[in-house]
């Protein structure tokens, strides 16, 4: 399978920075010196490290990036939910022990374990924090990217 790799122009990088700022509130994610490329219109690389990717039209940070610097809001899950999250399961209400204050519906969040507070997956909330905490059961967070999935493996150089 051949992949098309395209180096981004300064203008493209500026547009990407704008999208990152709108979604994640980070200014100047990419700096002028960064070499930014996109593979197959999906995977965004800084130098040769995949840092972001598109899933449908959603721009998501890789878990490796979030492990280095977590700029996402957090949903904390109990240790019983960890193996499921790490295998790509969506997060159900009983496994959620804590939700960051300002989490809204459709937010992109880091799913972290309660012991180490280490990100194990990137998810998208189906409800706001208040709604999640009011409910006793049901699916609360869609699992979009987790340890061991294809995106994770691509980033590992394996």
What's this entry about, in short?
The protein has five helices and eleven strands, in the order E-H-E-E-E-E-H-E-H-E-E-E-E-H-E-H. By secondary structure, it is of the alpha+beta class. The radius of gyration is 16 Å and the shape is globular.
Q: Could you tell me the strand content as a percent range?
A: 25-35%
Corresponding CATH architecture of the largest domain: Roll
Number of helices, counting only DSSP H or I runs of 4 residues or more: 5
Runs in which pLDDT lies below 50 for 5 or more consecutive residues are none
* Total domains: 2
Q: What's the mean pLDDT score?
A: 94
Structural class, from secondary structure content?
Answer: alpha+beta
What is the quaternary state of this protein?
single chain
Q: Considering the protein shown, what is the CATH homologous superfamily of the largest domain?
A: PUA domain
H-E string = EHEEEEHEHEEEEHEH
The share of residues in helices is 10-25%
Radius of gyration based on Cα positions:
16 Å
Per CATH, what is the topology of the largest domain?
Archaeosine Trna-guanine Transglycosylase, Chain: A, domain 4
- What is the CATH C-level name of the largest domain? Mainly Beta
The count of strands amounts to 11
Write down the overall geometry: globular
Q: Order of strands across the biggest sheet?
A: 7-11-10-9-6-8
Q: How many angstroms separate the termini?
A: 17 Å
Mind summarizing the main beta sheet?
6 strands, mixed
